[in-house]
Amino acid sequence: MSTTFSSREFNQDTGRAKKAAADGPVFITDRGRPAHVLLSIDEYRKLTSDRTDNLADAEASRQSPKKNILELLAMPGLEEIDDDFEFPEMKGDWGLKVPDFS
């Protein structure tokens, strides 16, 4: 079962929200839209155990674990790119004027 609290309700009665989290996720809204979720530590561990299990399995079998989105977007090998690159000079009239601040 899930419960919903507005931000104001959550701030005014955190204890009630924590008790409700024992029965299921508690959605906390900002201006009527879900913004946060409060979970019991047991529920959190259930959600993250898959990632932990993948790491343990990978270490045991010497394979790489499943990657999360941040690891997939990290662009490995970026440090090997030539950092002496110089951008070419842009020539021509671009219609830009230097502002006069006097």
Give structural attributes.
102 residues; alpha+beta; YefM-like fold; 4 helices; 38% helix
Brief rundown of the structure:
The protein is an alpha+beta fold.
How does this model look, in words?
There is one protein chain. The chain has 102 residues and is an alpha+beta fold. It has 4 helices and 3 strands; from the N terminus they run E-H-H-E-E-H-H. It is elongated, with a radius of gyration of 26 Å. The model has no long low-confidence stretch (mean pLDDT 78).
How would the blueprint of this fold be written?
Elements: E1 3-6, H1 7-12, H2 14-21, E2 26-30, E3 33-38, H3 41-61, H4 69-72
Parallel strand pairs: 1-2
Antiparallel strand pairs: 2-3
Structural class: alpha+beta
> Mind telling me the CATH class of the domain at 3-64?
Alpha Beta
What is the number of strand segments? Answer: 3
What helical percentage do the residues reach?
25-40%
CATH architectural arrangement of the domain at 3-64: 3-Layer(aba) Sandwich
What is the global morphology? elongated
Radius of gyration (CA) equals: 26 Å
